[in-house]
Amino acid sequence: MAFFCYIVECADGSFYTGWATDPVRRARQHNRGKGARYTRLHRPVRLVYIEEQPDVSSALKRERALKSLSHAQKKALVERSPLPEAGPGEGE
């Protein structure tokens, strides 16, 4: 099973970082209000960064490291590793 760290950009330009086994599905959950309290209050969100991790422990450690980055550092990371345009249903 694969594990991923992800960053979503919220409607107000802020970033939310998390981990999941399926980040596209998780972004849809955030947009449906089933995700974290933060994203429920800052919808809609757009998936902007995904990074695969070998196991859940690595994913949790990397998530913590990503969360400690400043907004500018997260923005630079996202700009260096852009995702393809959103597919059907990803921005829902």
Describe the structure in brief:
With 92 residues, the chain is an alpha+beta fold. The chain has helices at residues 23-31, 37-41, 56-67, 71-80; strands at 3-10, 15-20, 45-53.
Low-confidence stretches: 87-92
Given the C-alpha coordinates, what overall shape results? Answer: globular
Strand-residue proportion: 25-35%
Mean pLDDT: 91
Total helical segments: 4
Query: The biggest beta sheet, please?
Result: 3 strands, antiparallel
End-to-end CA span = 25 Å
Number of strands: 3
For this entry, what is the oligomeric state of its chains?
single chain
User: Which strand order does the major sheet show?
Assistant: 2-1-3
**Helical amount among residues, as a percent range?**
25-40%
Order of helical and strand elements = EEHHEHH
Q: Which value, in Å, is the CA radius of gyration?
A: 12 Å
Structural class: alpha+beta
Describe the structure.
The chain is α+β, with helices and mostly antiparallel strands. Helix content is 39%, strand content 25%. The chain has helices at residues 23-31, 37-41, 56-67, 71-80, and strands at residues 3-10, 15-20, 45-53. Strands 2-1-3 form a three-stranded antiparallel β-sheet, with helices on both faces. The chain is globular and about 30 Å long. Residues 87-92 have low confidence and may be disordered.
